Predict the structure.
Amino acid sequence: MRRRMGWRLAGAVLAGGAADLAGVGLIAAAAWLITRAAEQPPLAALSVAIVATRAFATSRGVFRYAERLTGHDVALRAQAGTRERLYESLIPPRRDGLGGADLLSRMVDDTEAVQDLLVRCLLPAAAAALAGLAAVTVGLFVLPVTALVLVAGLVAAGVLLPAGTAAAARRWAARIAPARAELAGRVADLVHGSADLAAYGAAGRALGDARAADEALASLERRQARVHAAALAGGTLVQGLTVAAIVLIAQGAGAGTVATAVLALTALVSFEPVLPLAAAGERLAGVLAALRRLRAVRDAPPAVTDPVAPVAPPSAPLTVEVADLVVRHPGADRPAVDGVSLTLTPGRRVALVGPSGAGKSTVLSALMRLVEPESGGVTVNGTDVRAMDSDDVRAMMTGLTQDPYIFQTTFRDNLRLAGPEAGEEELRRAVRDARLEEWADRTGWDAELGEDGRTVSGGQLQRLALARALLHDPPVMLLDEPAEALDEETADALMADLLDVTRGRTTLLVTHRLRGLESVDEIVVLEEGRVTQRGRHDELVRSPGYYRDLWESEVLTRR
């Protein structure tokens, strides 16, 4: 793959260089032809120059088209490969602490830096070097002393000026990408949290923060624009001074009108591919900063480590044992989960109950190999999950997670994420079991859902996520707060349906809601990462503790 990319890149460089060489040849031949024709020689004396001018003009367009085609093909392939590797590096999750907006900025904006590195930096530099070499060769052939002047001008415009702009841009280029990510995060908070901000009277402050982030980014971009303008002006000045010096030297040496015209126009056109290098040097500083940000994501340590030689996952039916599980998040003083044990036998349903921050979701993360235990562990049919590939573990144990993501595509396609090969009847069965069939038929299976599910209600979003989980049908179903942030009526209906469709399925349910839990086989109460109570619903409501207090509070609230 890399060898093919190397050949494509070499082809783009050669095509770009050939286009610029054809441009230099075109100007040189045309200058000689026009000035020589003014002397009215025989037509035969001009025939070679006429043919050369036509050939250079035609080939320049052909080579430029080939350079654009091959260059952008290489750049887009490299960008796609970079983005794919970045996706792969995020599975399993990394301990990088990046927020969603910042990670999205790196995924979209920073990966485009690879395209800029090739199209705006590498290819123009290679083409400019070839064109400059050709122009200097013409100068050596016609009047050698002018070649030295041209070399000095090209070095100033193509090496010193880009180096200066890169050095100036490097001081603040590393700040532009984080500033852009900060603005993206502020805007995302405004869009997705507009209702909450308005409810708490915080919209003005949030808008002020967004404006401040926008002004900070605009200030950095204005500095970038000033450097860009100064670079263009400096390159044009060097070009003009170089051509003027060559004309004066040629006239002083008595080179004649034809030679002077050829030297002047050749020097003038040789700067055409060189002048953009100043902007390329400026862009290179931003590209390198973006590449460092991408490398920081890829180099972040993974949350879990897969074995070098993973064992094959056991076949169903599965018995899951959580034994003395201890999980500590990076930098935390105390474990998030401390000595938790539970058993999931085939068809058994267990509910994890406890206050926020008790470690319930961390237990699910350990089951899905999203966090690494400090001690203890999880076994499936006696095999430690750390000995298996994490993808195999998640194929066995997954389901409905908190804040399920809905993509901006059709209802049908959002379902197919969980079952790409599922037939129409399988899709309908999952939707029917999630009690979403009437809504799907009314709205339309091919109706496009808004970004992050903003065009559907909270209950519909959770039911769609439940339908996905049922369609995937893992051997062990994990359900994390399926009724969170829903109104009482919707939450009760969803929990009733969920408990109905999971009957006979091996299920671990994390919930704050106790209504309906009398139908599960065991309830485990977590407080501060430890198991404080366990048993069936009728046993726990008779025993003093967190569960009875929460049950009494829930009953009183409903009266």
